[in-house]
Write a structure and sequence with these properties.
Layout: H1 3-33, H2 39-77, H3 97-100, E1 124-129, E2 148-155, E3 157-166, E4 172-178, E5 182-183, E6 195-199, E7 202-204, E8 217-219, E9 227-230, E10 235-244, E11 251-261, E12 266-279, E13 287-290, H4 294-303, H5 315-328, H6 344-353, E14 359-360, H7 376-395, E15 402-408, H8 415-427, E16 433-437, E17 455-459, H9 465-473, E18 477-482, H10 498-510, E19 515-518, E20 546-549, E21 552-555, H11 557-585, H12 590-600, H13 617-637
Parallel strand pairs: 2-12, 13-19, 14-15, 15-16, 16-17, 17-18, 18-19
Antiparallel strand pairs: 1-3, 3-10, 4-9, 4-11, 5-11, 6-10, 7-8, 11-12, 20-21
Helix pairs in contact: 1-2, 10-11, 11-12, 11-13, 12-13
Length: 652
């Protein structure tokens, strides 16, 4: 019984005692006021008062029961304090604690009250990997109908799976609780706060200018939720994410997810977790540069985020929430930092500790207009700023991590571009310049023009592996980027398969790109919950990997899939390092090493070219499992403890 319930009972008893006392006092007063009345009349008057009291309490209790019944009904139909989730996953982001608080109910949360079910639940349960998008139509579901769900991950890795709820004859409101994930020998348990439960939301796409399999409701937003509505004859997935701390012992773990509807019907699903005996590093080897537009954040929370006004005057803290979530997804924000600004050093130090591996400085260049001054005096002032910033970065030992986003998508040979990059190197030759090219330059024709470009970032559709090797020999670091969808290349739009996002780091590994860039994660010209084609009316989700809510960032399936790909890259990096170690030490069977080398070059069935890659999720997951097993096999043959990915470049 809760403290609030005890307080209510106490007040009820106190009021009753006061009422009975008043009746007795009234009887005493009547005997003195009417000494001629017989005792029976006094008693009957007092009994009448008592009867009225009991009748009043009965009526009050009836009103309480009626109001409470309405309140409980509203909790499950959308009319009360806990709002109903939109039947088809559209509309605004969650606004109440039931949808946005911790995915796992806190300790002490009362369990759902079980009532005697009148019949078997009409809703059923299945599961699907996080690499397959699950649509509303049950006929499109090709996953598993079993209640045992396997999942495998390394230390310091996140991995997701979907529990899929199938609606029966009537809608169902289902509460989700997660039991402890405990090692089979009982010696260790996953911390509760590393398990997230989210509702898969749906957004309505517009007909795009690129080929897609379907136009309509696509799964994408992932708001926190431990209660979901399952429409009749429809599908509602839950997105379950597990994070493994780097200190957790490897082995087999298991835990139960309990699903309970409003009528007390209960179903269970069992997670069987395999924790690999290796740990991924906090900072990824694949460098990333993902844009974040502060002005779009401010406009969204001012105009179309429900209750977004609560962030008025706190934009910096709101922005920080997005930065932290990007880093949680292994994506480094470009930042456009000012190294001399107050608070820069402690902020950047913390970001570096949790995974930042590259960041931009300054606000010139790197956008649609590039915005470098044309006035010579103003240009001189700007270059002085970069000169002083370089000194500050040197003092803080950050020159190798920082870059200047010098120019975005110019024409090859543009003399203004060469002039700006030369001026930056004149300010300080240690500044690393980033040049992003939509139209690929020719290493033979444009070599002199590119001499001041430290990092050359090429659009995936113009990424020629043969040219990449030439650019590297010329001293350039080569990155890859995606932007507007270009069929048949992979991309980050809503209406592409999830593997399209996850495959990008695999391609980066296979074809030698040491960095991955994306222009923006929050380009919200319109409310993405309602209109996801905010950048262009025929491009669904381009420039937007998050959904804004009053509680902060709501991730998309795309950014989750991309993080999985970033983690896959670390598997490849670790295996490559172990191969090098085995070759150096000797003593490892040549057949084992040959299998390992074949895995690290990436299976052609998974990635045939930048234009052709597997659409079957099982092909990727099979390769990932084979790489993990080979890592464990090689490290068992080498004199090393449970390893992290070694911070060195691969041989690929």
């Amino acid at each position: 019984m809760t403290k609030l319930e005890l307080l209510k009972i106490g007040l009820f008893l106190l009021c009753n005692a006061a009422a009975f006392g008043a009746i007795l006092l009234r009887g005493w007063w009547m005997t003195h006021r009417h000494p001629d009345w017989p005792l029976s009349r006094v008693a009957s008057s007092s009994a009448l008062s008592l009867l009225l009291l009991v009748a009043g309490e009965g009526a009050a209790y009836g009103v309480y029961r009626h109001v409470n019944a309405q309140r409980r009904a509203a909790m499950f139909t959308g009319g009360g304090g806990i709002k109903q989730l939109a039947p088809h996953g559209l509309g605004h982001p969650p606004q109440d604690a039931s949808q946005t608080a911790s995915a796992i109910p806190p300790a002490g949360t009362p369990a759902p009250v079980a009532v005697a079910p009148t019949a078997e639940a009409s809703w059923t349960v299945g599961w699907e990997s996080g690499l397959t998008k699950v649509f509303r139509d049950p006929k499109k579901f090709h996953g598993q109908r079993t209640a045992t769900i396997p999942i495998a991950l390394a230390g310091n890795e996140y991995e997701s799976v979907q529990i899929v709820l199938f609606g029966g004859e009537a809608p169902a409101h289902i509460t989700v609780t997660m039991g402890a994930l405990t090692r089979t020998d009982g010696t260790s348990t996953f911390p509760a706060d590393v398990v997230e439960i989210r509702r898969v939301g749906y957004v309505k796409t517009a007909k795009p200018d690129y080929p897609v399999s379907f136009v309509g409701e696509w799964p994408d937003p992932l708001p926190m939720a431990h209660e979901v509505d399952v429409p009749a004859h429809s599908v509602q997935p839950l997105w379950i994410t597990i994070g493994a701390p780097d200190w957790l012992p490897a082995g087999r773990y298991a835990g139960t997810i309990t699903l309970t509807d409003a009528e007390g019907h209960t179903k269970e699903a069992t997670l069987q977790v395999r924790l690999w005996n290796f740990v991924l590093p906090h900072a990824s080897h694949l460098k990333t540069a993902f844009g974040f537009y502060r002005n779009r954040l401010t406009e969204a929370y001012s105009h179309f985020v429900p209750s977004g006004v609560i962030w008025t005057g706190q934009t910096a803290e709101l922005e920080r929430l997005y930065m932290l979530d990007m880093l949680k997804h292994r994506l480094s924000p470009i930042l456009d930092a000012d190294p001399d600004r107050e608070g820069f050093l402690p902020a950047i130090d913390y970001y570096l500790q949790i995974g930042l591996n590259a960041f931009g400085i300054g606000t010139h260049g790197g956008n649609f207009d590039n915005e470098w001054p044309t006035d010579p005096q103003e240009m001189k002032r700007v270059m002085n700023w970069y000169r002083e910033s370089a000194k500050t970065l040197e003092e803080q030992r950050l020159l190798e991590t920082a870059y200047v986003y010098a120019y975005d998508e110019p024409k090859p040979g543009d003399p203004r571009v060469a002039e700006v990059m030369a001026a930056l190197h004149h300010a300080d030759p240690r500044l690393r310049t980033l040049l992003v090219m939509h139209e690929p330059p020719d290493p033979l024709v444009d070599g002199a023009w590119l001499k001041d470009a430290n990092i050359l970032c090429l659009r995936i559709s113009g990424f020629d592996p043969a040219h990449v090797e030439q650019f590297k020999r010329m001293g350039h670091e080569v990155w890859m980027y995606v932007s507007s969808p270009t069929d048949p290349y992979p991309g980050l739009v809503i209406d592409y398969p999830a593997i399209s996002a996850r495959i990008l780091p695999w391609m980066s590994w296979k074809y030698g790109a040491s960095g991955l860039l994306y222009w923006c994660v929050d380009y919200w010209k319109t409310n993405p919950w309602v209109d996801p084609a905010g950048y262009q009316p025929d491009q669904n989700g381009n420039g937007s990997l998050y959904y804004p809510s009053a509680q902060g960032p709501v991730p998309s399936i795309r950014i989750e899939a991309l993080r999985d790909g970033m983690e896959d890259y670390e598997y490849l990096s670790l295996l490559d390092a172990l191969i090098q170690s085995a070759e150096a030490h000797g003593g490892v069977d040549t057949a084992i090493l040959e299998r390992a080398r074949n895995l690290v070059v990436v299976d052609p069935a998974l990635v045939t070219s930048l234009r052709s890659y597997a659409q079957d999720a099982d092909v990727l997951l099979t390769n990932r499992t084979a790489i993990a097993e080979m890592i464990e096999q090689l490290q068992a043959l080498l004199p090393a403890e449970r390893p992290h990915a070694i911070p060195q470049g691969g041989t690929h």
